[in-house]
Design a protein that fits this description.
By secondary structure, the protein is α+β, with helices and mostly antiparallel strands. The protein has helices at about 5-10, 20-30, 75-85, 140-155, and strands at about 35-40, 50-55, 60, 65, 90-100, 105-115, 125-130. It folds into two domains: about 1-30, no CATH class; about 30-165, Alpha-Beta Complex (Nucleoside Triphosphate Pyrophosphohydrolase), CATH 3.90.79.10. The chain has a four-stranded mixed beta sheet, with helices on both faces. A three-stranded antiparallel beta sheet has the order 3-2-7, with no helix packed on it. α1 runs antiparallel to α2. The termini are far apart.
Length: about 170
């Protein structure tokens, strides 16, 4: 526990209740995280869909996803993010895992999805999507490589992408 946090906790009990500063002290002594969503989508052969992100220069390829907005549920968030980034309509199949990334102040929920409609259209964030087999991934960021290592057993599951929506067959 940091010295600042210890000092604030000691002072806290002597401060009058319901003051404007309680909120600010609470933010200092309590960790906060943003919540991110990562999408795992597979084709009929079990290959994994990756997106080529327009804003990532060094490692443009990675899993699609985004950040939870205030008041939003995780299923709604990942469906929205996939639609905004790719124009594809997705259906959540379930939560694969949750990671706490303390260095980034982020909690990531990993969701398996099935694409149910649409065809890919480039967006401001994603210029291309492709499916990659195990061992054939393009160069990924160190964080994405860590993600693949943690979830390798869950990543390569056939059948969450219908034949009619692929456009790459």
């Amino acid at each position: 526990m940091g010295a600042t946090r210890r000092a604030l906790l000691k002072v806290w009990k002597y401060l009058p209740a319901k003051r404007w500063y309680e909120r600010y002290i609470f933010k200092i002594i309590s960790p906060s995280f943003n919540v991110g969503l990562v999408a795992v989508v597979n084709d009929a052969e079990g290959r994994v869909m990756l997106a080529r992100h327009t804003y990532r220069r060094r490692w443009p390829w990675g899993f699609p996803g985004g950040t939870l907005e205030r008041g939003e549920q995780i299923d709604d968030c990942i469906v929205r993010e996939i639609r905004e980034e790719t124009a594809l309509v997705a259906e959540p199949l379930g939560l694969v895992g949750v990671d706490v990334l303390e260095n980034y102040g982020r909690i990531e929920c990993v969701m398996r999805l099935r694409i149910v409609a649409g065809s890919f259209e480039p967006s401001d964030e994603v210029s291309e999507v492709r499916f990659f087999a195990r061992g054939e991934f393009p160069e990924l960021s160190p964080e994405q490589n860590d993600f693949v290592a943690r979830y390798e057993a869950e990543l390569f599951t056939p059948g969450t992408w219908p034949q009619s929506a692929t456009g790459d067959r």
